[in-house]
Specification:
Length: 446
């Protein structure tokens, strides 16, 4: 569990293990724990997640949590890239948006019942134990059930979508949304934001499509990674297959605490599709030359765990000596330029404050019009050294820090610092917007 102290999210402090024959393993475990502690603390301090013990624990577990402004932006960028990836890779992937709860979704799963209904039943002393049990069952069966995944909604959209594509295969239905899953056997539900692609194809090609999507998804995760080798794919062993699945693949990330699944892919056959339409095969037949029932390949990802994976992957903790031989520690979130929640931070140096702020306001407007997210650091009235500003923006993952000073007023020149290289260069104010735009565009195409 996490422990909270002075409004900060911290893992419990543990003394370093004594040297022994297990010294190497203990040291590795301690380093991993330190890295997790540093990451969660950084995420809370730099507005990626809301502060608090339980919120940080939900985030670590891959559940939906309270996000801060930067976390919201990172999550939005990740979702946007996911949509672009699944819909842009094939011509026949369509978006759907299904309900998170439904009355007619079967007898299983968690259900939503207002507490006042329970209280009304329990407050009726004339009800016998058997009658009370019957009334409770009736109440539960009439209540809407919460979806554990996005699969069922896509299956229910299959027939209308099949008509839309003139009954030709393959095609896919994509959706992102909130799902509700059991949390470690406690009986409580955890909210998880899922990304889902349900691909309908002919039975003879389903295994090849599983391999295709597994390669596609792994390539996508690695595209935005600072250390791509931390992302891998594995075949699901036969004894771990879901009941209706003939094959399965998982995209894994190597967190400091171990491997965890980011996406799971299944060859599901046609059983669940037939069940969704009560075995009426005539509705489900497609035109693939044989009038067969399509097979389903599902791709289901955990977006919240994906956010955690990219933050963990991008964190670098650096040490170096300054000019006075003092050891300095530097933390940098080297988030991919496309995903970075803040591309540019605007600050002012020495000079006429009012005039410099007016320049910053104009430059900020230029960035916003170009849809480049910018941080208005010039609005902070507390005096801060440039060194501390750079450290702050590195921890926030800001790509470039732009400092407007007296030279800007005189000649239009400003100073630009890169997060990744720490190199500072002088640039004319008229060039900065196109410079940042081209930098992000080049990173997206890479």
């Amino acid at each position: 569990m996490l422990a909270q102290g002075v409004g900060r999210c911290l893992l419990p402090q543990r003394s370093r293990p004594a040297r022994s024959s297990r010294g190497l393993c203990s040291a590795a475990a301690t380093d991993a724990l330190d890295r997790v502690r540093a990451l969660l603390q950084l995420c809370a301090d730099r507005h990626y997640i809301c502060p608090g013990e339980s919120n940080a624990e939900m985030f670590r577990r891959g559940w939906s949590c309270g996000y801060g402004p930067l976390g919201v932006e990172l999550r939005r960028n990740l979702l946007q890239q996911w949509w672009h990836s699944v819909s842009g890779s094939r011509a026949r992937v369509f978006a759907v948006d299904t309900l998170s709860s439904s009355v007619g979704r079967g007898a299983g799963g968690a259900r939503v019942v207002g507490s006042e209904h329970f209280q009304q039943l329990l407050s009726q002393p004339e009800l016998s134990g058997e009658r009370l049990t019957q009334e409770l069952k009736r109440l539960m069966l009439s209540a809407p059930s919460l979806r554990p995944s996005l699969l069922q909604g896509a299956l229910e959209q299959f027939v209308p979508s099949l008509e839309m594509v003139n009954k030709k295969l393959p095609f896919g239905l994509a959706e992102a949304g909130l799902c509700f899953q059991p949390s470690d056997g406690s009986g409580c539900l955890a909210e998880v934001t899922q990304m889902s692609l349900v691909w309908f194809c002919s039975p003879r090609t389903s295994s090849q499509w599983l391999d295709h999507w597994a390669r596609h998804r792994l390539k996508w995760w690695r595209k935005f990674a600072l250390s791509p080798s931390d992302f891998n794919s594995v075949e699901v062993p036969e004894h771990e297959l879901e009941e209706t699945a003939s094959r399965g693949m998982k995209i894994l990330y190597n967190f400091p605490w171990g491997l965890q699944s980011l996406e799971t892919l299944w060859c599901r056959g046609d059983a669940e599709l037939l069940q969704a339409y009560k075995g009426v095969r005539s509705k489900l037949q497609s035109r693939d030359g044989r009038k067969s029932i399509p097979h389903v390949v599902s791709v289901c990802g955990n977006m919240d765990r994906g956010v955690m994976a990219f933050l963990s992957n991008s964190l670098q903790q650096l040490r170096r000596e300054d000019g006075k031989k003092r050891l300095q520690h530097r933390k940098v979130l080297k988030i991919h330029p496309v995903l970075a929640p803040v591309k540019v931070a605007l600050d002012i140096g020495k000079g006429a404050t009012v005039e410099l702020r007016q320049v910053c306001e104009g430059l900020l407007q230029e960035f916003l019009e170009a849809r480049i997210s910018a941080w208005p650091g010039y609005l902070d009235t507390l005096p801060t050294s440039l060194e501390h500003l750079n450290a702050k923006y590195d921890e926030m993952g800001v790509l470039f820090t732009v400092v407007i000073g007296e030279n800007t007023l005189e000649s239009g020149l400003l100073q630009v610092r890169s997060r990744d290289t720490t190199i500072k260069e002088t640039m004319h104010i008229s060039e900065i917007r196109n410079f940042v735009f081209k930098y992000i565009s080049a990173a997206e195409k890479f």
